[in-house]
Design a protein that fits this description.
By secondary structure, the protein is an all-alpha fold. The protein is built from 4 helices and no strands. Helix 1 packs across helix 2. It starts with 7 loop residues before the first helix and ends with a helix.
Length: 76
């Protein structure tokens, strides 16, 4: 685990979103990072498709970005 420095404005956005979505600030930041990373790896996917990818990954035991990328590549 490490420390990530973010702007005060981003921290406030995290605080508001985490409260609204019943997550800790760290959990909200990690969620946004997962979504952003997957969006960069798969620019053809929309938010719904990324969410489904995360759900499938969780059902399979957790997010493994290497496996998630490989699974996505073999699909039509």
């Amino acid at each position: 685990m490490g420390i990530v420095k973010i702007s005060d404005q981003m921290h406030e956005s995290l605080r508001v979103a985490s409260s609204a979505l019943s997550r800790s600030i760290n959990a909200q930041a990690e969620h946004w990072m997962r979504i952003g990373l997957l969006a960069e790896l798969h620019p053809d996917l929309d938010h719904r498709e990324i969410s489904l990818l995360l759900i499938r990954a969780e059902q399979a035991g957790g997010l493994d970005l290497v496996s998630a990328s490989a699974q996505r590549e073999v699909r039509p």
